[in-house]
Amino acid sequence: MARRTLLFISVLLLALMGVSNGAPRKMVGIYELKRGDFSVKVTNWGATILSVILPDSKGKLNDVVLGYDKIGSYVNDTTYFGALVGRVANRIADARFSINGTVYKLIRNDGNNTLHGGHRGFNRVIWTVKEKVDGEFPYITFYYHSFDGEQGFPGDLDVFVTYKIDYDYVFSVSMRAVPRNKPTPVNLAQHTYWNLGGHDSGTILKHSVQIFASHFTPVDKNLIPTGKIAPVEGTPYDFRKPMTSASRIDQLPGGYDINYVLDSPTDVQGVRKVAIVEDCESGRVLELWANQPGVQFYTGNFLKDEKGKGGHHYKQHDGLCLETQDFPDAVNHPNFPREVYSPGEVYKHYMLYKFALK
């Protein structure tokens, strides 16, 4: 563990100094997208969302995502605050899978399983800034080349993510990945922790949540899907109608950490409404749309006195995540939507965040 810590710190320091073994330097930076009083800050360390600032119903500006004050704190972060995770988000059972009869063994970083791409997933690498455009609808595009065998995954993979402010209090995340030479699983996810009352406002258990899904994928004690697809009706997982996060959370060990099978119809571009979150105190409302078949609803169960922005200490349930995705461990479940892409195919993942006030 100490050697890994030193390695990650060394990589970051080399990047900040512009040194990369004689190769063109990669700098770690912070970039702001801004439209009026709506601001989104990101960094090319892990293609991470650092902050999202917007007014509440009284005009007060707040940052509504959890995170840290300094980039260095993200280097060994185990919470995945704001990160773009991959090559395969969520868990892969026993850190292994097979494609066309070839077995691939991955790096284990969650007991016997692989979580969010392994020890050095996409959240722990420096992405290249391909383009940044300011103006009325500002955006930035990051690029990362994942090499054949990285964390055990097969084939070279080119990965792009674009963060864009599309309109007033609306921003999107567009992810794209292209395998170069081998079939490989791809499942990227955006792991921002939201607290619509403000990152330092305490628990999200009073947030109202609605998830447009009538089924979910049950998991075992290690949070690995069993392969079944079960109805939410009659379970604590039923958020088809708006209700607070706290309403039935005491029926679950720790809280929510589950994949929902989205059933709302898609539009002509394959995008569907995923969820609506509302904080009555601030009046902020978040509506999420995406083109993926599932969404992981996570209530910050593993947050334990995590020192964050402004010295605030985040505690259990101080943030929630809505990570649109393919189903967890899909590469080992033939009945789940496929997540293996071959050369010549393009993985596309689109998310749209719409904020409003009540």
From TrEMBL:
Source organism phylogeny: Eukaryota, Viridiplantae, Streptophyta, Embryophyta, Tracheophyta
The record's active-site residues are 191 (proton donor), 323 (proton acceptor)
Database matches in CDD domains: galactose_mutarotase_like
| GO MF entries | aldose 1-epimerase activity; carbohydrate binding
Family according to the record = Belongs to the aldose epimerase family.
Q: What is this protein called?
A: Aldose 1-epimerase
Which positions carry the signal peptide feature in this UniProt record?
1-22
Instruction: Give GO BP annotations, semicolon-separated.
Output: galactose catabolic process via UDP-galactose, Leloir pathway; glucose metabolic process
The pathway entry for this protein reads as: Carbohydrate metabolism; hexose metabolism
Q: Does the keyword Signal apply?
A: yes
Query: Per the record, what are the reactions this protein catalyses?
Result: alpha-D-glucose = beta-D-glucose
Mind telling me which Pfam families this protein's record contains? Aldose_epim (PF01263)
Report the InterPro entries cross-referenced here: Aldose_1-epimerase, Aldose_1/G6P_1-epimerase, Gal_mutarotase_sf_dom, Galactose_mutarotase-like, GH-type_carb-bd
Residues where beta-D-galactose binds: 90-91, 191-193, 257
Enzyme Commission designation: 5.1.3.3
Which keywords label this protein? Answer: Carbohydrate metabolism, Isomerase, Signal
